[in-house]
Design goal:
Layout: H1 7-15, H2 21-32, H3 39-49, H4 62-80, H5 91-104, H6 112-121, H7 124-136, H8 142-154, H9 177-189, H10 202-221, H11 230-254, H12 260-267, H13 272-284, H14 288-297, H15 301-314, H16 327-340, E1 351-361, E2 368-379, E3 384-391, E4 396-397, H17 407-418, E5 424-428, H18 437-449, E6 453-463, E7 466-474, E8 480-484, E9 489-493, H19 503-519, H20 524-527, H21 534-537
Antiparallel strand pairs: 1-2, 2-3, 3-4, 5-6, 6-7, 7-8, 8-9
Length: about 550
């Protein structure tokens, strides 16, 4: 008989001084299987959980990781909950959530979820308390700050403006300041405020931008004498640019003419994102130097999408060269922007060129999509790095080396990597319960029947009802990776290259092939490599 998991199971685990492995397992099961429907049920969970006071001394402890996951689940359910009115929490619960937030301490990665829950609740009291928490004790990670501020933008209530002017006191926090200004800029741009929320701060922001430009100029010229590590220097440069961008956008929206000189200084810096934002501000203030700079920056893929958006807003789109407005140019820019994100390469590629363009149905989209493959390269000083990325319906690249693969297989890999569906699941074999052993053994036998040997199961998956197995497996004396289901066996030989395919990559290729053939049943180009990967991978 299957065990019963409920809220009490999780609370018992989190309340225990030293929960056992069995308690932790049951606690995780309860969280993952929780069925929270309706505001009352969610509020019951929050009331029960807000009395917890687990230690935050070790954020990576099993108990704190369980708590982080519980808060993540609760915050997702609150965001998706349909409520007729804002302010559906009892005042005592609001106070408990705030108290819980402060108790967890800045190192606990789950506590930003508490602020997103309050932001979604939407009452004036909750909104004001969110501002207090952010100013007095902001989350330590930028990702946590972005989560809270993003919720305030996406799920904004009629009380969102109650964040100000209190939230502006957080401009002294380097990690918080850009997000505060971005939120204020958004509210002004959307016409949700009678005047820009940061209007009273404009003179101080001008002085701040002047200081940012001076520091960045010294760094760019190499005359900045500092003992900071390269990593810390890069982090602070990125933070300065992010804040500078937000300030320039603020000046553009407010048409703050006294800032012209400091914005022109920012426009002369080397960083294209900041130059673009400064040019937008200068052009918004009626100076043709900003318009000229935007036209020049349209040639830079990393700045192109912003330039086109600003050019349209300024009414100068007809002055941007047609080749920088084309579908290919926009797709190129989307991939470059994606590669430039800190979580990816962190900077724009040295060069990029179009390899393939075609129309096809893409999973997750109703209409046909124009898909592009680009080869991009980086000159990193210690050697070149090149690979293939995709743009169009999605912007995506991979760490695995794709340079020798045909376009059909590259599209399939990206479709598999991008696939997200409740009926597509996978898990490492070593993490499965013993009850899965018969299914794994059955699929192993299927691989053996196809002449494969040295089989080592790696991943067990469910793909729209089909049970699948990914395993290291040899064929005719060659090592490789095999994927099998009830119909097909797909074998991919091992590659002799530094960034070779892993078992997870091969499984993504398998999933992508299945998906693209299902969405494009008459496309012979996609069928050309649908049965055997041996020739493609060698």
């Amino acid at each position: 008989m299957e065990a019963s998991y409920d809220l009490a199971t999780t609370l018992d685990c989190l309340s225990a001084a030293e929960p056992t492995a069995e308690q932790l397992d049951h606690g995780w099961q309860a969280v993952e299987r929780s069925d929270l429907e309706g505001a009352e049920t969610i509020e019951d969970w929050l009331v029960a959980c807000s009395s917890l006071r687990p230690t935050a001394s070790d954020p990576q402890s099993p108990k704190n990781l369980l708590l982080e996951r519980l808060l993540e689940v609760l915050h997702k359910r609150v965001l998706s909950c349909e409520v007729e009115d804002e302010g559906w929490f009892a005042p005592l619960l609001i106070e408990s959530l705030v108290s819980w937030y402060y108790h967890l301490g800045e190192r606990h990665r789950g506590r930003p979820y508490l602020l997103t829950i309050l932001a979604r609740e939407g009452s004036s009291e909750s909104i004001r308390l969110v501002a207090d928490c952010l100013v007095e004790d902001p989350p330590s990670e930028v990702i946590g700050i972005d989560l809270v501020l993003g919720t305030l933008i996406q799920r904004r209530s009629r009380h969102t403006l109650d964040l100000f002017p209190r939230l502006l006191d957080g401009l002294s926090h380097p990690k918080l300041a850009p997000g505060i200004l971005d939120l204020a800029n958004f509210l002004a741009r959307e016409g949700e405020a009678d005047f820009h929320p940061a209007t009273d701060q404009l003179p101080q922001l001008a002085n701040l931008l002047k200081g940012i430009s001076a520091n960045l100029s010294r760094i760019e010229s190499g005359s900045y004498d500092d003992s900071r590590t390269a990593e810390l220097m890069q982090e602070q440069v990125l933070a300065s640019i992010s804040l500078g961008v937000s300030i320039c956008d603020c000046f553009a929206l407010t048409r703050y003419e006294p800032a012209m000189d400091c914005v022109l200084e920012a426009m002369d810096l080397g960083h294209r994102r900041l130059r673009c934002e400064a040019a937008w501000a200068v052009a918004s203030l009626g100076d043709s130097r900003g318009t000229k700079e935007l036209i020049q920056l349209s040639a830079e893929p990393v700045a192109r999408l912003r330039v086109l958006a600003y050019a349209e807003e300024l009414g100068i789109l007809d002055q941007i060269p047609a080749e920088h407005q084309s579908l290919v140019a926009r797709a190129e820019a989307e991939l470059v922007v994606w590669l430039s994100e800190p979580a990816q390469m962190g900077l724009a590629p040295t060069s990029i060129e179009l390899l393939d363009q075609r129309e096809m149905a893409w999973p997750g989209f109703e209409d046909q999509q124009t898909c592009f493959l680009f080869r991009f390269s980086y000159n990193l000083g210690r050697g070149d790095y090149s690979n293939i990325g995709m743009s169009g319906p999605i912007a995506l690249a991979a760490t695995v080396d794709l340079l020798d693969m045909p376009p059909e297989e590259i599209y399939a890999l990206f479709a598999g990597v991008h696939s997200r569906h409740e009926e597509i699941q996978e898990q490492p074999v070593e993490e499965l319960a013993s009850g899965y052993a018969p299914e794994i053994a059955r699929l192993e036998r299927r691989l053996k029947d196809e002449g494969l040997d040295n089989i080592e199961p790696r991943i067990f998956g469910l793909f729209f009802g089909d049970k699948t197995l990914v395993a290291d497996a040899g064929k005719l004396g060659k090592p490789g990776v095999a994927v099998t289901d009830r119909v097909d066996v797909f074998w991919f030989p091992a590659q002799q290259k530094e960034r070779a395919f892993t078992a997870a990559d091969v499984y993504s290729l398998y999933k992508g092939r299945k998906l693209l053939r299902a969405f494009n049943p008459t496309d012979s180009q996609l069928d050309a490599h649908s049965t055997d990967a041996t020739d493609d991978a060698t």
